[in-house]
Design a protein that fits this description.
The complex is a heterodimer of chains A (102) and B (135). With 102 residues, chain A is mainly alpha-helical. Chain A has five helices and no strands. The longest helix of chain A is centred in the C-terminal third of the chain and has 28 residues. Classes of the chains: A mainly alpha (102), B mainly alpha (135).
């Protein structure tokens, strides 16, 4: 009798996460890094741990953890990664003369 | 006998070759730990504030079987991140490297601005009249 509950939870969360900002970030990091295994491991651990924390703290996660401040920190991280990527892309274009050695 | 004793790469999981997205720049590729930490921190921070719905879902299952709900949710989260990683690899194979880097960078900046705006708007005392009417 547990399978329907498992399946419905899976479907709900999976559909909710598709196209989420987190997944966009994962696509970005994975696409620009050659270590897909590390990206997958890191994001999986973070997602599971975050949901575990959320469940452990109950519905009042924001009372325990300053989630808004954390989101602000996350947005700064996004900005730093984004700016670094754009700068790297610009540098790659200026030094485009050397062929990429596979 | 012919097998190499110590492959230098710790975990080049997936297909045989690394994606050509970051062709030949080992400095930017980083170690496994560095990439893991970067991804973990980014995803964890971004997701932590967003986990209220999932927490509510888990709580709502408290009458029944929260462990089953948690397992299902975790599987779904892992699958969604797998989809993201696979999508990123595919993009790295299709799109030229620095075009991808620029696009990804712009996307990250946009996400950061959006996330930061949301966080600031909720941190600020709500109900400030005429603050930012633009949606």
């Amino acid at each position: 009798m547990q399978l329907p509950l498992l399946a419905s939870t899976f479907a709900t969360v999976f559909l909710a996460e598709l196209g989420d900002k987190t997944q966009l970030a994962i696509v970005t990091i994975s696409g620009t890094s050659s270590r897909s295994g590390a990206v997958f491991a890191g994001s999986s651990c973070a997602l599971v741990l975050a949901s575990l924390l959320g469940a452990g703290a109950g519905g009042s996660l924001s009372a325990v953890i300053p989630t808004n401040a954390l989101q602000l920190a996350a947005s700064l991280g996004f900005l730093v990664i984004g700016i670094r990527l754009v700068i790297k892309a610009g540098q790659a274009e200026t030094t485009d003369s050397e062929p990429p050695t596979a | 006998m012919t097998q190499a004793a110590d492959p230098p790469e710790p975990q080049a999981s997936g297909p045989d070759n690394a994606p050509p997205g970051t062709a030949g720049n080992e400095a930017t590729a980083g170690s496994f730990g560095a990439v893991f930490l970067t991804t973990f921190t980014t995803v964890f921070l971004a997701e932590l504030g967003d986990k209220t719905q999932l927490a509510a879902l888990l709580l709502s299952a408290e009458s029944g079987r929260p462990v089953v709900v948690f397992v299902g949710a975790s599987l779904a989260l892992i699958s969604s991140s797998l989809v993201g990683v696979v999508l990123g690899r595919w993009l790295a194979r299709v799109v030229p490297p620095h075009q991808l880097e620029r696009g990804a960078g712009i996307l990250m900046i946009a996400l950061g601005l959006w996330l930061g705006r949301q966080a600031v708007l909720t941190l600020l005392p709500s109900g400030v009249p005429g603050e930012l009417p633009v949606g």
